[in-house]
Amino acid sequence: MNSARKEFRDRLVKMEQKTAGLQDKYQEEIKVMFETQLTRRMKWEWIVTGILSIGFVVLFGTAAIMAPSDFPVLGRLLFGSGAVFGLAWAVLAAVILRRGSVNVTSHGKAAAGMAWCFAVLLMAAVLVLASKHPDRIVGLHMICGVVPFLIIGAVFLLQYRIQEAELKTREKLLEIELRIAELAETLEAKE
Amino acid sequence: MRADKEAIYCELLVVRCKRGHEQAFEELVAHWEERLFYYVRRLVKTEDDAWDILQNTWMEAFKRIRSLKDPQSLPTWLYRIARNTAYSHLRVTYREQMYLNESGNASEVEPNDEAFPFEDAESVHHGLDQISLIHKEALTLFLLADLSMDQMAEVLGIPLGTVKSRLYHAKRAFRAVLQQEGRDHE
Prior knowledge:
Chain A has 191 residues and is mainly alpha-helical.
């Protein structure tokens, strides 16, 4: 596109008459686009999530601390993880209820991450327990049941990491290209 | 901003959006909203509708931006979302009615930049509203100069030849409007 066409385009676009009130309303809507306001139902769902999460913290936290001294360390760790998981969800629920809205990007990412971590942790624990099961056949069945899910989880994580790395590299390259284009523009202007 | 620099900047914004940067999406909106609003405003009757459509366009874009495979195709992608949103608003029957009235031969005409009054933005702006929707849409996309002919064909969902034909007839209709207005003033 030559600069004359671009200048004409810019002048043409500026010709558009806009009503301030309507534009302001649009701007407000755009500002809150990433935020989904909590409906009555959603609010109750998050309250229930918060209560259940606190229940998790109390239940698993107590179990981890109060378990008898001869209780296996792995089991204690599992209880501890359950308590941490519950605490994380309780914090998320509290943040969302306090804001009165869900941020589609950050809260969504946090919830998905926590769910993924917990699922993988749980599966890993089952795997360890299965390997120590006195009945080897039952243990094998348990492992066979869990391994596919663990593989799917690992593949998902790997794909995500590769995609992130690709995007990050591309972002850096584009930043350099943009800088070069800016320098070229400055030099052209000086000549 | 120069065309190549703008293309790099937009690609960078898309990559950042795909990485989940909210601020990049806000920048993307700020960068494109005027042009998209101008386009959408030519398609619908009221300003209120145009703002609603633009807002829905951004919502759709936000939802789908992670699946945008080629960040360089951002302009085509955005205009297509805006167009689909606007036409959903206009309802299918109305659109079909407008397109049935289309005339022109796809193979014989070439749009000619020289013959267009590029110096007078005001008369172009007012003249655009005097021609049919189908011509107005093609001419607006041409004047906004974000898309190549091939990309325009993709946005409009028609063959390249039809785009050229439509532009040719749009310019002819536009010139007729300008001449008529000139006569009315005399």
